Automatic annotation (TrEMBL):
CDD domains in alphabetical order: TM_PBP2
Protein name per Swiss-Prot or TrEMBL: Spermidine/putrescine transport system permease protein
Gene Ontology cellular component annotations, sorted alphabetically: plasma membrane
Spans through the membrane: 12-43, 63-86, 98-126, 132-158, 179-211, 231-252
BP term (GO), one: transmembrane transport
Membrane topology: Multi-pass membrane protein
Length: 272
């Protein structure tokens, strides 16, 4: 009886926690399809007018282009740097490896406002003008730890004898990596890129400090919150962003699991 009561209590706690966490997100599409301009109950009639306004906004299109450019660039750079770090940490032993990995993963625990202010001071001190490039630098910094975490798992699950066997058969070290290792970790690479893309697309603080006069989607949303008439359109934009983020994260998790299963099958039965 006591165990059953505890189980029901834990389920109730989990349900309340999920409601608290996701209820505000679930309300986004509710008001995005509401014809009223005031975010309040009761709702008015159903409409898609606010979604139509998204495509007619020139500033929004510019912010979207900037965010996509930043996200693609940061995802590619973070994944490339993550591959180097993951490869080194799983394949080689060298002095200071733990310290180096700890410094790489440090942005995971540092407050983003501290990272943003620090980058702003350093970039201005060396004379770099704030632009899309500076945002790409900042987003690469914060996305790299996530890429390293994903790719380290992908590289660590590989059997090193596969690469050694390829080299024994006459392949160079580069060809062994390109023809054997790279295809096996490709799901992890795709997962890393999707995760980094999602993080960069939704990131606000770094972009707020480093974008200068160039708008990004998060900074554009923040700038529009002061205008009550823009709130329904922002709700529609938020709905699109949430749906896109969920889709990208689901794809990233799919590729991560696919990579884990693929390397597991190779390790257990690839040579049988």
């Amino acid at each position: 009886m006591n165990g059953g009561a505890q189980g029901r209590g834990l389920r109730a706690y989990a349900l309340l926690y999920l409601l608290f966490l996701y209820a505000p997100i679930l309300l986004l599409p509710v008001f995005a399809f509401n014809s009223g301009t005031v975010v309040a109950f009761p709702l008015n009639s159903f409409t898609t007018e606010w979604f139509g306004q998204l495509w007619g906004n020139a500033t929004l299109r510019r912010a979207l282009f900037n965010s996509l450019t930043i996200a693609f660039s940061a995802a590619a750079l973070a994944t490339l740097l993550g591959m180097f770090a993951a490869r080194a940490s799983t394949r080689y032993r060298f002095a200071g490896k733990g310290t180096a990995l700890g410094l790489i993963m440090l942005p995971l625990v540092l407050p983003e406002i501290i990272v943003g202010v620090s980058l702003l001071v350093v970039l201005l001190a060396v004379g770099i003008e704030l632009s899309i490039l500076t945002v790409i630098i900042g987003h690469t910094l914060i996305c790299t730890p996530y890429a390293v975490a994903i790719l380290t798992t992908a590289f660590a699950s590989l059997d090193q004898s596969l690469e050694e066997a390829a080299q024994d058969l006459g392949e160079s070290r580069w060809n062994a990596f390109r023809l054997v290792i790279l295809p096996l970790v490709m799901p992890g690479i795709l997962s890393s890129m999707l995760m980094s893309f999602t993080i960069s697309l939704d990131e606000f603080i770094i972009a707020f400090f480093l974008a200068g006069s160039e708008p990004t989607l998060p900074t554009y949303i923040f700038s529009q919150l002061r205008f009550p008439k823009s709130i329904p359109m922002i709700m529609a934009l938020g709905t699109v962003l949430v749906a896109t983020s969920i889709l990208l994260l689901a794809l990233a998790e799919y590729f991560r699991r696919r990579g884990a299963a693929r390397t597991g099958q190779t390790n257990s039965g690839g040579f049988l």
